[in-house]
Amino acid sequence: MNSNYIDVNKPYAVFAFTKRLEEVLSKSLHDNHSEIIVLCVGTDRSTGDCLGPLVGHKLKYIRSASVQVLGTLDEPVHAKNLKIVLDKIQADYERPFIISIDACLGKAENIGCISVGEGPIKPGAGVNKRLPEVGDIHIMGIVNIGGFMEYLILQNTRLSLVMRMADIISAGLYHILSKVFLSGSNIEKPIKI
User: Fold this and answer.
1) Other C-beta atoms lying within 10 Å of the C-beta of residue 15
2) Please, what's the b/e burial string for 57-82 (b: 16 or more CB within 10 A of its CB; e: otherwise)?
3) What DSSP character marks residue 48?
4) What burial class does residue 131 get, using C-beta atoms within 10 Å of its C-beta: 0-12 exposed, 13-18 middle, 19+ buried?
5) What distance in Å separates the CA atoms of residue 118 and residue 138, rounded to the nearest whole number?
6) pLDDT tens over the chain, length 193 residues
7) DSSP H or E stretch at residue 97
C-alpha cells in the first residue's frame, strides 16, 4: 500500500488524514490565492460516487468569506454540470485555491483508503468519461475495485465505507479550515499550519 494512503479503518485515521492534508496545503497554498474552494465532485445517484456530495453536505454550514463549499447532496457537482461550475468559478473568483474531492476505483488492497496530493483530479476517469481536470490539490477516496464493469461496481459499493470516508475527510477539512481561515487568519499571508 502507498504510504500516502490513509486507511479509514485504522485507529487515528482522522489524525493521519489531517496531518497529511496539512503537509500538502503547506506546500501548495500561498499568498497568491484569494479564496479557498472545496469542490466536492460526484452524484447522489450512485453509492460509490456520492463521497464528494456527502463531504459537501457535512461542510455546507461553513460560513466564511474565504472558504466556499461547492457540491452537496442538494446541489451536486457531477459530469453534466462540472464545466458550468468551473466556468462560474473562473468568472466569480479572482485567484481561488481549489481543493477537489472525489471517489475513485483502485486496487483491492487500497479499498477504504484516502489519498491526498498536489495537483488536480480527473473526474470520470474510472468510468471512461472525459471531463476537465480540476483542483490545486486533491482528496480521493478509493471506494471499490476498478478495472471491470465500473458502473456496476460503483452502484454496488457499500454506503458504510463511503460514509466513514466522508466523516474522516469532513472532520479533517473542518479542523484545518477552522484553524487557518475561520479563526480570523488572513489568507493574504502564506499558510502556516
Assistant:
1) 14
2) bbbbebebebbbbbbbbeebbbbeeb
3) G
4) middle
5) 6
6) 456 899 999 999 999 999 999 999 988 887 777 789 999 999 999 999 999 999 999 998 887 888 999 999 999 999 889 999 999 999 999 889 999 999 999 999 999 999 999 999 987 665 667 788 999 999 999 999 887 777 788 888 899 999 999 999 999 999 998 877 655 444 333 344 3
7) strand 96-106
4 phi and psi angles, rounded to 5 deg = -85, 0
Give, rounded to a whole angstrom, the gap between the first and last alpha carbons of the chain: 27
- In sequence order, what are the residues at sequence separation of 6 or more whose Cβ sits closer than 8 angstroms to the Cβ of residue 70? 37, 38, 39, 40, 56, 77, 85, 89
Q: The cell 471499490 sits on which residue?
A: 144
Are 187 and 35 in contact by the 8 Å Cβ rule? The answer is: yes
Nearest alpha-carbon partner for 162 in 44, 68, 33: 44
Running DSSP on this structure, what letter comes out for residue 7?
E
Classify residue 92 by burial, with Cβ atoms within 10 Å: 0-12, 13-18, 19+: exposed
* Residues contacting 40, CB < 8 A, separation 6+: 52, 53, 54, 55, 56, 59, 69, 70, 71, 72, 76, 77, 101, 102
Residue 189 corresponds to which cell in the numbers above? 499571508
